[in-house]
Amino acid sequence: MAAYIVRRLWQIVPTMLGVILLIFFLFNVVGGDPSYLLAGKISNPETIANIRKQLGIDEPYYVQLWIFIKQVVTFDFGQSWSTNEYVSSIFASRLPASLMIGIPLLIVEAIIAILIALGVAYVRGSLTDRAVMVSCTVAQSVSILVYIIVFQYVLAYKFGLFPVQGWGNGFFENLFKYASLPILIALVVSLAPNIRLYRTFLLDEINQDYVRTARAKGLTENRVMLVHVLRNAAIPIITNLMIQLPGLLVGLFLIERFFSIPGIGREVILSVERSDFPVIKAITVYVALATMLANLAADLLYKAVDPRVELK
Amino acid sequence: MTTAVNTASIGIERSPGLWSLAWKRLLRDKIAIVSMVIVATFLLLALASAVGLVAGGWNSEIAKNYAPPTWFKGSAAQEDLSKSNKSAASGPSLDTGLSRPEFVNDRDPLRETITELKQQLGQSTSSGADEIKIVDPLADVIVELKKKLGRTGDGDANEVEAEKLSSLAFGADKWGRSVFDKVVQGSETSITVGFAAALVATLIGTLLGALAGYYGGKTDDFLNWFYSIFNSIPYILLVLAIAAVLNKKGILTVVLILGLTGWASIFRVVRAEYMKHKARDYVRAANAIGASHTRRMFVHIFPNISHVILVQLSLYVVIFIKSEVILSYLGFGVGVDTVSWGSMLNEAQNELILGYWWQLGAATLFMAILVTAFSLFTDSLRDALDPKLK
Residue B86 class from Cβ within 10 Å (0-12 exposed, 13-18 middle, 19+ buried)? Predict the structure, then answer.
């Protein structure tokens, strides 16, 4: 087990190197010289030369790449180009808000989606099943933007059930006051595709022989569905949940933007708007790392759920 | 003798191919037919709008500001109309987004100055653009601007005002432009971007997937590494990062961004198919008769997996249409001279608070219909091409 984890962590290195190369190529080679952008409208050659020197753009590419690798390893990306805030402190201050929305969402969403999927898979082919599937397809076709605009307008602006936007300081104030409408919207948006997905996973299992055997030996339907079927369908469901995990950091960027929630996702959009390269570079690299670690965690979870899985 | 006749007659009754069988299955599927008709209608609409038959004049202000939809006019529209007239009179106070020159309600101070100057110079007032130019170096620009706004250089502002409609089939936006024309233009943009980006992604993904699956070994290792890089960065983050680097708006940019980032999922599928097919007898037979690697990959194997690629392509169209809307909403997508459902939603967000919901409604409705129809069509296509899956 420990050997497996070490080997998997070691395998992350080449991919991580690839991510660094890709980001470097995008921002330092394709992105070109940002010094004119930074110098602003009134710029003399001296200022520009100064900025170039400060950013290390004068150096050959391999030196710049080395600087970038050092930045990634030491978690020190310097300061933001537009706000002069340290990139590390941007991370530290934006992460809690993103997690405040993301973690409750993931838990509630997983429970509701799995329960509904179990329900419709159990009555597969019936009118209920088809109605749920059709509404999922239609719900998926409406842009997330429309959900946010309409929910924010109707529930917060018109009826005043939630604050229109904002973010407080206290943990419970944020969770129950400011985060509830964003979580509700994200829930509505993510339920439709996940119910469809989990339903297919469950249907793959529901016709298997062991299910018939379980019924034949007189188990209750609850036990058949919740213990036997669900446990066997757990692997693809866990994969899907783990894939969503790193997406929580940036995936809710639209919601964070609409509700002025100071999270990582909103920071990404702001930095793209301001061409704030250090911030985008840092977020991209670390979210990629988080994705790879989440994949590893998913593989370890398989073993816990299904003892037949061998970790090679 | 008889055997020869038999084989000949057997030869005539050729068994139907994959595509004709799939087509027959597709035609038996009612949902497939309905969704195909809807998608075809959208394609025709987009084509007509691209050629200029429909919605060519989306940028001209043909109606009053925020004119309501015709059928909605009777009920609540009176109040809205008076409100909108008031807002029009107060000028660009409602403008939250782009500012546009208002020639309609304001007096034209420039014109007055020009007339005044002309009188001083003792010139005749039968103004031509050339004469104005002597006085005002900007005259050319202004004439052009006015032409763009759907007016000739000498048109009287009051006359234009009188022609404006008080209601339209789908209502009008802040500047009195037809929401219907805009939503049709938006369909054209979405369909163009969706299909073009899907083609780019499919082309890259298929080519790399074919190379990786067919050659295996070092090639496969390298391409897999390349794939894992793209796979480890969340899609939307990569899209936004590239948008930040390119820092340029336009349909071509959006197509490039989506196409270059989206190829990873088809790579995986195509690679697996090539690995499966390369060891099959027909490929070895092709090798025996001296077919080159390229020929075996693209003449022999490719047609046998093209149905998988078609389904993936169809999935891509839906994903990319949705992504384009988000990019354009954020302002990283198409430019201001192009309409997108995303930019319409951006405008609609501010209009909704004022009670003008029709632009939001139209963009949502059109997008939902197209995306639903296309998703259902993709499902049916997959079932028809691979009945074992059902």
Answer: exposed
Distance in angstroms (rounded) separating the CA atoms of residues B22 and B212: 29
The tens digit of pLDDT for each residue in B82-109 reads 444 444 444 344 444 444 444 444 455 5
- Select the residue of A137, A143, A275 nearest B247 (Cβ to Cβ): A275
Q: Which stretches in chain B have pLDDT values below 70?
A: 1-13, 55-58, 62-63, 66, 70-170, 387-390
A·B CB contacts under 8 A: 111
Q: What is the CA radius of gyration of chain A?
A: 24
| Interface pTM, i.e. ipTM | 0.84
Q: Give contacts of B225 with chain A, Cβ < 8 Å.
A: 14-15, 18
pLDDT of the residue at B390: 47
Closest CB from B232, B242, B345 relative to A149:
B345
Nearest CA in chain A to B243: A272
pLDDT at B158: 47
Say what the pLDDT of residue A43 is: 65
Chain B closest-CA separation from residue A218 CA (Å): 30
Give the closest residue to A184 by CA, choosing from A89, A86, A289, A258: A258
| DSSP sequence for B73-113 | HHHHHHHHHHHHHHHHHT-GGG--S------SSS--HHHHH
Q: Is B63 helix (H, G, I), strand (E, B) or coil?
A: strand
Contacts A29 to B, Cβ<8 Å: none
- Mutation site for A-interface testing, chosen from B226, B245, B358, B382 by largest number of A Cβ within 10 Å: B245
Which residues contact residue A178 at a Cβ distance below 8 angstroms, ignoring those fewer than 6 apart? Answer: A163, A166, A167, A168, A259, A261
Q: Rounded to the nearest 5°, which phi and psi values hold at B361? A: -60, -45
Hey, of A23, A124, A146, which one would you mutate to test binding to chain B, going by the most B CBs within 10 A of its CB?
A146
The list of chain A residues with pLDDT below 70 reads: 32-43, 250-251, 312
Closest partner CB to A287 (pick from B234, B242, B370): B234
Question: How many other CB atoms are there within 10 angstroms of residue A14's CB atom?
Answer: 12
Choose the mutation target among B224, B227, B232 for the interface with A, i.e. most A CBs under 10 Å. Answer: B232
Q: How much is the CA Rg of chain B, to the nearest whole Å? A: 29
pLDDT, residue B289, reads 92
Joined together, the tokens standing for residue B379 give: 């499902």
Confidence at residue A63, expressed as pLDDT on a 0 to 100 scale: 81
Name the residue facing B245 among A19, A27, A142 (closest C-beta): A27
Written as six digits, the tokens of A49 are 């030369």
Residue of B nearest to A248 (CA): B234
For A137, the closest of B233, B370, B372 (CB atoms) is: B372
The answer to whether residue A290 neighbours chain B at the CB level (below 8 Å) is no
Please tell me the predicted confidence (pLDDT) of residue B156: 46
CA B390 to CA B375: how far, in whole Å?
16
Residue B178 β-bridge partners: B172
